[in-house]
Design a protein that fits this description.
Blueprint lengths: L8 H16 L4 H20 L10 H13 L11 H20 L24 H10 L4 H15 L4 H5 L6 E2 L4 E4 L8 E4 L2 H13 L1 H4 L19 H15 L10
Antiparallel strand pairs: 1-2, 2-3
Helix pairs in contact: 1-2, 2-4, 3-4, 5-6, 5-10, 6-8
């Protein structure tokens, strides 16, 4: 999406303002990064329809664009975009509409309803399939991070939110334990970690994480390739990429 050409100066300027506005409102880093990408694609689509002024954007344009997304193929996973994915575009455009109206650059609104989401149930992996996921990890910087990701969710059995919020300080190497601070129903607990997991953690902390993090004060254990705390969706995309490499056709989720 970010590689789509955008020729209209007004749109490029508004995209930058939109990103700064989201940060000013206190949205999470991942949101500040992703929502402008969805807006960028919307602007590119508008240009293809010869719309080059924010004052020309209408609710019908938004409706047509969201309908277009239902037909657009998913560049990463194949098939069509999920309802959850399209709803992220919907969120991005609702916020864009607010910014445009607040700064007197137009008056369009988003009248289209969000799509109903159905939660797919992940399938259970066999021991052999879990091993195949580990084998699909490389020995490069991301590969070492991927092994720790698998350790967190499959080896230690943490839930998605628990794994995302792990910090380096939560690893107790002497006690062979992982401290889960943000557990279900806000319950804290310790989870045992075996020697293999601890060795993966040491390799990652010594040879991978220092090259990934862009902020020296980032406490996160799992860091994305952009240098910040890896979010659940980022890790899920990576997991499903490993599944494709391993030849696993099941629909996977974190904590499967």
């Amino acid at each position: 999406m970010k590689n789509l050409p955008l020729n209209t100066y007004v749109f490029r300027e508004l995209e930058l303002d939109y990103r700064e506005w989201l940060a000013l409102l206190g949205y999470a880093e991942n949101t500040v990064y992703n929502l402008p990408l969805y807006v960028h694609e919307f602007f590119h689509w508008l240009e293809s329809r010869d719309v080059k002024k924010t004052e020309e954007i209408s609710a019908q344009h938004v409706d047509d664009f969201l309908f277009h997304l239902k037909k657009r193929p998913n560049a990463i996973h194949g098939g069509s975009l999920s309802h959850a994915h399209i709803n992220k575009y919907h969120q991005a455009l609702v916020l864009l509409s607010r910014l445009v109206r607040q700064t007197n650059r137009g008056s369009f609104t988003v009248e289209t309803e969000r799509l109903e989401q159905t939660r797919a149930i992940p399938e259970i992996l066999t021991t052999a399939e879990v091993k195949a996921l580990y084998d699909a990890c490389g020995d490069d910087v991301l590969g070492l991070r991927d092994k720790v990701m698998l350790d967190v969710f499959y080896g230690c059995g943490l839930r998605r939110n628990e794994g995302v919020h792990l910090d380096v300080s939560d690893i107790d190497f002497k006690g062979n334990l992982v401290y889960v601070r943000k557990g279900k129903n806000y319950k804290e607990r310790y989870v045992p970690a075996n020697e293999t997991i601890l060795q993966h953690l040491k390799d990652y902390l010594d040879h991978s994480r220092p090259f990934l993090q862009k902020k020296d004060n980032t406490p996160a254990l799992l860091v994305s390739d952009k240098g910040y705390r890896a979010q659940g969706q980022t890790l899920l995309i990576r997991l499903r990429k490993l599944a494709r490499i391993a030849g696993i056709g099941k629909r996977l989720g974190l904590h499967t």
